[in-house]
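Human: I would love a firmer grasp of how sequence relates to backbone shape in proteins. Could you go through the record with me and say what the backbone is doing? Here is the record:
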Amino acid sequence: MKAAINIIKEQINNFYLIRRLSLYELKSNNKNNYLGMAWEIINPGIQILIYWFVFGSIRQRPDLEVAPGMDVPFILWLICGFILWVFFYQSTIQGSKSIYTRLRMLSKMNFPMSVIPNIVIFSQFYIHMALLLIALIIFQLSGYFISIYFIQLVYFIFATFCLVFSFSLITSTLSTIIRDVHMFLNSTLRMLLYLSPILWQMTILDEKIQFILKLNPLYYLIEGYRAAFFGVDWYFVVHWKYTLYFWGIVIILFFIGASLHMKFRKHFIDYL
């Protein structure tokens, strides 16, 4: 409990530093590209078009049902899930290696190491907000206008942030001690893309398999995003049991991550 409280205090006390360094991180990652930060938008756009062509166009997939009597185009359904996946994947991968790739810099600077994963996550958060704005424009042009349910998107963005940060505390610590953890995580997350309802609907599976796959907290976030964009319902209220399960997972991950980080961070410099 004490470790978790200390981590939270460090994030609050260094929030200005996190925002400033996250912008610098984003700019420095794209300084050598002719199109600069535009690639952060172009790359996900290309991937969405590829997945739409393979899973939607070639297979001539019909509109998908997101609620009784409400069918939506596959491309819009795909966009909702994929922009969340981009944020989750990039933040998790970059967050897992955020500490050990900056150990030399950290040895010369005086600020809490726990803010490092958050700096990386915030840099990806700016990209996520840009993708959300583009998605919102596409939905308006497609006739799916903003409704009152869109407000819940703020909640799901916050929930995604909490999940990614909690998980990154664990992986960034373990990756610093054992570098193979990052490689294993990269391979596992690529598989997770196809085990999450991003490219296909969960309803095509047997109920027992659905139950197992829904244990993945990413499912909760993806369906929440879609409920917000399509104006289906207040997902986190209607599925309140799933909401409790999700936050239970996040809290457990956060306590584990905070304990591991506080226990080993004094020794991180030894892994240079």
Observations:
- The first helix runs from residue 2 to 13.
- Residues 2-271 form one domain.
